[in-house]
Design brief:
mainly alpha; membrane; MFS_dom; MFS
Length: about 425
């Protein structure tokens, strides 16, 4: 006669854990905030540098242009480097470069040093933390909610503006622009340990599948080619596509109408009309606040609607707001200007989630690197207008021609967005 074994005690239910993809996304957001901190400062620095060193608006704008251009040109190579050497390593080095370049500006005495520190060193650092980094994170760690996560991470740049720009303006008017540079340097440096602790290159590195992946998910093969070969090869393959050139063209206009013009020149343009520096900087920061909501909402819409139609609407609305801007400047902040700030701010980088989605649809596993090249066109447009607007200001005494030009270009971008064809669906199997 056997004795029945007592029933095993009931095991407590395992609490549902948050997928690691969300932790990686959260730290990536914080790192993007640190990278964005320095990118928020150029417009506030133009007048102090002009007053202290006597450099013209055109000379200072040239340094901004180098920064913006390298931010875009290095992005596809950074995306390929992340593919070859890992996200964690590349992002940590990028944050260290931002800290170095920002900190070194406090010792400069000549304009070429501004170009070196502000343009080249910080340009390469921020280029490694550009929006192609957003595409890499979303492509590797997420299957579901890609549009939403793209919107949240893209909003990290706006958060950098939100957190730092008013403080930078106060530091510039108080202790001076050098104190603001040191703050940005320390902030970027503080992000490095967080990235090293939490971020991993792929979900497979920690025994996971991407968020939303089913049981039939197969991890893509890791490219063994060099970073330069991968970046240039992706460009070569994409360059035969009509969609690539339309995306690159629209995104060039996006850059020209956002960080190239408004990001770099809104504060000095408002100052030309008698608005205090801190008030103008605070308005630019409000754009960052509103943009967080607009970009996250754009990511949500991208998961549900045709990205081409979203881009057309975004560019048309942005162009209309820029055409109205010159008549809104005044010596103080009035309701029409506040309306512009909210209206324009909702659209600031809302174009990013639909553009990433279209790159992914058309170019598959090359999508993140191809988006890096599309971002390069964004920064080329931004660099061109940042330089051009500075010289327009020196030649005419105001920025009005730049605002009108940007508004007209946005109307063109709306039309170009609708001209992008959706990729052909694979044929259904027969038999």
């Amino acid at each position: 006669m056997s004795i029945a074994a007592p029933d095993a005690p009931e095991q407590p239910r395992t609490a549902r854990r948050v997928h690691r993809a969300w932790w990686v996304a959260a730290v990536s957001f914080v790192a993007l905030v640190g990278a964005a901190a320095f990118r928020a400062t150029p417009s506030v620095f133009i007048e102090p540098l002009h007053d202290e060193f006597g450099w013209s608006h055109g000379t200072i704008s040239a340094a901004i242009s180098v920064n913006i251009l390298l931010y875009g040109l290095f992005s596809p190579f950074a995306s390929a480097l992340q593919e070859r050497y890992g996200i964690r390593r590349v992002v940590s080095i990028a944050l260290a470069l931002i800290a170095l370049g920002s900190g070194a500006t406090v010792f400069m005495t000549a304009s070429w040093q501004l170009v070196l520190c502000w343009g080249f060193i910080v340009g390469i650092g921020t280029g490694s933390m550009a929006m192609a980094f957003v595409a890499t994170i979303t492509n590797r760690w997420f299957i579901a909610r890609r549009g939403l996560v793209s919107g949240i991470l893209t909003a990290g740049g706006a958060a950098g503006q939100l957190v730092f720009l008013p403080l930078v303006g106060l530091l510039v008017e108080g202790p001076g622009w050098r104190s603001a540079s040191v703050l940005v340097s320390l902030t970027a440096l503080a992000m490095v340990p967080l990235v090293l602790l939490v971020v991993r290159d792929r979900p497979e590195d920690v025994g996971l599948r991407p968020y939303g992946a089913g049981d039939d998910y197969t991890a893509p093969a890791v490219s063994g080619s060099g970073a330069a070969r991968r970046a240039l090869g992706s460009l070569w393959r994409a360059s035969g596509s009509r969609a690539f050139w339309l995306l690159a063209g629209t995104f060039a206009i996006c850059g020209a109408s956002t960080n190239g013009l408004v990001g770099a020149h809104f504060v000095p343009a408002a100052h030309d009309h008698g608005m205090p520096l801190t008030a103008a900087a605070s308005l630019l920061a409000v754009i960052g606040i509103v943009d967080m909501a607009g970009t996250i909402f754009s990511g949500w819409l991208t998961d549900r609607f045709d990205p081409r139609h979203l881009l057309a609407v975004y560019y048309a609305l942005r162009g209309a707001s820029l055409l109205a801007l010159p008549s809104l400047f005044a010596g103080d902040v009035r309701p029409p200007m506040l309306f512009f700030i909210v209206f324009y701010g909702l659209d600031w980088v809302a174009t990013v989630p639909p553009t990433i989605a279209l790159c992914r649809e058309h170019f598959g596993e090359d999508g993140a690197v191809v988006f890096g090249w599309v971002l390069a066109s964004h920064q080329f447009g931004a660099a061109l207008i940042a330089w051009g607007a500075g010289f327009v200001r020196d030649a005419t005494g105001n920025y009005d021609p730049a605002w009108f030009t940007a508004g007209a270009l946005c109307a063109l971008a709306a039309v170009m967005s609708l001209a992008i064809r959706r990729p052909a669906a694979p044929a259904a199997p027969t038999g």
